[in-house]
Amino acid sequence: MGDLMRSVRRAAILITAAGISLTPMASTTVAASAAPAIRAAGTAALACNITATIPLGFFPAGIGVNPKTSTIYATNGNVPGTMAVISGRTNTVTTTIPVGSFPFGAGVDPYFNRIYVANQADNTVSVIRGKTKAVLATVPVGQAPNPVAVNPKTNAVYVANLRDDTVSVLSARTNTVVATIAVGGLPNGITVNMNTDTIYTANFFDDTVSVISGAVDKVVATVAVGGAPTAIAADLKTNTVYVTNVFDNTVSVISGKTNTVIATIPLADSANPAGVAVNTRTNTIYVTNRGNDTVSVIGGWQNKLLATLTGFSEPFAVAADKNANTVYVGNQNGTVSALVCMR
Predict the structure, then answer these.
(1) CA–CA separation, 29 vs 306, rounded Å?
(2) Is residue 7 assigned to a domain?
(3) What is the structure's pLDDT at 80?
(4) Dist CA 108 CA 128 (whole Å)
(5) What is this structure's pTM?
(6) What are the E-state strand segments in 99-206?
(7) Alpha helices of the chain — where are they, by DSSP H?
(8) What domain range is 73 assigned to?
(9) What is the pLDDT of residues 138-192, one digit of tens each?
(10) Cα–Cα distance measured from residue 63 to residue 65, given in angstroms and rounded to the nearest whole number
(11) Of 40, 115, 164, 301, which is most buried with the most CB atoms under 10 A?
């Protein structure tokens, strides 16, 4: 019964709109259109614009990107069972792939062009060949799998299971579960630093991040962060991890070297931050804020908020294509926004 209530509470908080104030940040909030210039203290001008709005017709609960093929994958979180494939070159949906029930997270292996979709309602992961768009395998995992992360260097796929507080480790060679790791309560976010072979989960109920060694498939550290950590992303180049805390309206910055919080970045009181993505090419972090329909842009070199952009509709999932210098934002109104920021 306790596990069921966890899933119900998770759905109520993150899938439906939060009943909070929608007051935007006044000083740094600008429309992400017509390439407006934003100047923050100690930084060069930042110009951001939405270069395309891609209609899907459903709420994109999860977004994955293959920067090598310029392809974006969006899971259908409203009508279970499908995933849209988007061409980053034309910003159009090219096909729809049937997957499992209530697909949520989407992880991409750009080296082998594989996509992994966590199907929350049937406790499976769909393995898809990117070239043919065919489902190669359906792998049973833990209960209520949600986020997915891939380490292409080790051919390992990591799936966080909300209901049983575990991470399933899949071998990309055999498409089987080779390990199950206990982590904190309700691991709602997961990311991998493939350079250090380290995996991180954001544990919503524990206000912690579990640090997993990919070499031994064990938790080697637990880091306290803000209230209700929801999403997590790693910058491979700087060995830094960013965590959105939905109850605190903050972003915790963790050093991958010391496994300690080195900065806490405040967002607007109405932000209700959901997703986070890192553009390693520009050392820039993007946070989707469902509460005030904005995207926060953070400079990784100084761990400061550079700008808060408007022009979104309850943005949730987000992923970055470093090769194209484009960030893809999934909106509640059934669209994906292609966002480009340059200095």
Answers:
(1) 10
(2) no
(3) 73
(4) 10
(5) 0.90
(6) 103-109, 114-119, 124-129, 134-140, 145-151, 156-161, 166-171, 176-182, 187-193, 198-203
(7) 2-14
(8) 31-342
(9) 999 999 999 999 999 999 999 999 999 999 999 999 999 999 999 999 999 999 9
(10) 7
(11) 115
